[in-house]
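Worked example

This section walks through a single chain of length 699. The input is the sequence exactly as stored; nothing has been trimmed or padded.
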Amino acid sequence: AEGGGVAVPSYQMQLAIAPLPSSCSPPDTPQYSSVTPRPPTRPSHTHTHSHTHTTPARTAPPAPSIANAPMAAVAAAESVLSILTGGMRARELKNDMTTCEMSQPLWPSSSALGLGDSRGDAENEREKDRAHAREREREQEREMERERHRKQEAMLQVALQETENIVRQQQARIQDLQTQMQTRDACQTQHDGELSRIQSDASRLHEENKRLSIQLQIAGTPATPPPRAPSSGMPSAAHQRVVIDDHIVLAGVLEYDFDPTASPGTPGNQNGSVRRTRSNPGIGHHQSPSECPSKNSELRLNPELKATSDWRGDLALARDSNVYTTARTVVERAAEMMDNLDMTQDLPDSSWNLNGQALYQLLGTSDPHSAVQKFESIASCCESCLRSQPPLIDVQPPCKIFGDIHGQLRDLLLLFREFGFPSHRRGDIECTNYIFNGDFVDRGAHQLECVTLLFALKALYPEQITLLRGNHEFREQNESMGESGFLGACHTHLRDQTLARRFYDRSHDCFDWLPLSSLINHSILVLHGGIGDGQFTLHHLRGFQRPIRTWTTNKLVEHVLWSDPSDSDSAMKMGVHGSPRGETCIEFGPDVTARFCQDNKIKLIVRAHQFVDHGYKIMHGGQLVTVFSARNYLDLQSNDSALLLIAYDSQGKMRVRPKRLLHREGHYMPAPNQGSPHLEPYKLQPQNPPPMIPQKLEW
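Given that input, the structure is written out below as tokens.
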């Protein structure tokens, strides 16, 4: 019973409960109706998504029946009596009931018995269950929302970090662009200054030209010369002109005439020929028209055929000047020294004509004071020519390019002997240009002689001879090398501190005005070291201001004179990286060379600065060539010397052809049935091979 009695299972007894009559019902006894007992069943658990257990609803008992009221009362009384008297049985029934799972209670709910409203409680329970289910669903939704927020926050953190990285990269790029803009502005300012100077010079020359035109008109001479052929490339047939020098019309004794029937032994004799003169004029003496008996003395040239300038160029020396005679004497004596080289035994340069003998022989005097005076006159003329030429020299093919010489005069003369001497008497200077690509001095035994010869060639042929600056044409470099440097060589040769300093300073007055580069037919760039990081252009080279007294104050000069290419025969390095020469020197890869050639519209870069085994080396896919002209460098290496000949072939293309002088291993043997020595050496196996030194010894 709900009031605290013992519940009796339905399968233990069958009884029908009906409400007692009003006459026999106790005041608080609930009224019962007829109930059909059901066997016990397991409770039906309905699982939802929220795992909520829903209690099955209790079915309300049927309404009490009046017809069977007496019987019901009797049955109820018996049931009560049996319950009261059967305590033991009740306990057994209770134990049985605890072992049985029932889906719903046997007895009616308290609401059906009039003991309370159980339906309302069930509804409350279900409402609570639903509320708990909704709360759990909301909690799950909140947890999912928090998880989604955490994921979004993580994604935002990643995006923020990427944005910060991009911002830093852009800031670095902006700084680089600002630096480039500052450099460009500085170059532009320098270019503007150079342009204004050129414009002022042009206006001054224009006024001078007008004044000279007026004077020429007064004198009865044509005011303007005929137009000259363009200087770029091979001129077309429409641009080619034919001109004749007026002084050769008379057919008198010219500057260099030779008589093949003269007896040998006369100074200047070559293969039995000697100068023939009338009235015994001096060497190179040019007679006036009145002195030259000629059959065509009445001839007058057509003005269109008359040459109005010297073939050597507008900067050429006057033939009757003293400095012209001195420079020509130096070149002639060098040719004689070349002819007298003893090739039966190939001596090293360091064992040939030492202690200034070659210098005094070139200058034609044995007095040191006179020798320095003559050199100063040649150097002064050379400096004037260099001042009048731009920092980048335009050269037309055919031309020869020489590499480092380093004071090895004998090797330079051997190259002249075999591949052409720069002279209009017996060489090819009238049809071939010469480029000497720096490093004339330091380390060699004939540094003063090399400088004297090159300056004399420049003074005689200012348009045909191009001298470029190397990293050894600087005071700090010469003086840091001690006795093997240029200053030490001046003291060794001249034996007088004052004379040595005069020779040294006058040389550097010319070195400071040397151009940095030359351009062959707008296609081949020639410079000493390399292109560095490749950030400059030909425009920067053309507008560079001189004199240049040090390389440490300008990155462009340092890159042009000191940089090296990556070696294509070993592990190739791309881009720009450090160099074994020092912290301020760099090396550049083939990608830098290709980009520089493409940006500046050139095909080839020719440089020197490093000795190579064969005298020349093709690098960076053929877009860069290294040439070196001092063989057996420092008397420690077994490298050849070479020059490059740039000339047009039969198809009209500029062809690069190396001319090589093999290194010294034994001594040279004369070739059979030939008057000139054969350059293939008779190889001897040295018992003690010379020690090898690093290739990057220049620094």
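What to look for: DSSP finds 14 helices and 18 strands in the chain.
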